[in-house]
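go over my protein:
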Amino acid sequence: MYAIVEIAGQQFKVEKDQKVYVNRLSTEEGKKVTFDNVLLIGNGSDITLGAPAIDGAQVGAKVVKHLKGDKVIVFKKKRRKGYRKKNGHRQYLSEIVIESIVASGAKKAKEAKAEPKKEEPKASKKETKATSPKAETAEVEVSENLVTRAEHRVEQSGVEIDVDKLLHNIGTATKAEADDLKQINGIGPAYEKKLNEVGIYTYEQISKLKAADKENLSAIDGITRERIETEEWVKQAKALLKEQNK
């Protein structure tokens, strides 16, 4: 017996005991999950079609582990323009094993959906001062959310940066706190956007860049450690920060 079932926005032809790699599910590893959107079931010469899904049909599975797919390289080039761009991407996946295929009579269960994106936190780190143990917990949660969002943006763009380490060294900031980074000589609209994508919004963050952080940022297309040091981004950021605090 086989079935065609929709899992996390994709359709798969599955059989019992088959391993399937699907878009990342929110279900924990080792837990069981069921899928009700069964579009077709085949059993020898008997084929049952849904309209669009078969009422009462269900596919049961177990989440084996969460993992990342193989790296995909995206290379773009324009002839005689000097334009070359290389990005990498690894898709978040879940490995599941099909345990059962029920043709009818199954109870309706909530389908496991692809893991949702993290929402942007409303409170900033500056707004959540640690006045109590509860306030300290809230501040840590806000900081972790900012790092998670920055990592997600970086993965979408294909840039490989250790965002967690970078933002741990220079601090986190929200879009609401953003300074005009274009005031720093050498940072135009394009570089400002790229810096924002990895969670850098303020003069204070740039003023704290150390050698390792500059090397980390070198993964961004067009931004190099030599550029940061030659154009004195850190020195300019400190001057602008001092002027801002007058």
Summary: The beta strands are 2-7, 10-15, 19-23, 32-35, 38-43, 46-49, 58-68, 72-78, 83-89, 92-102.
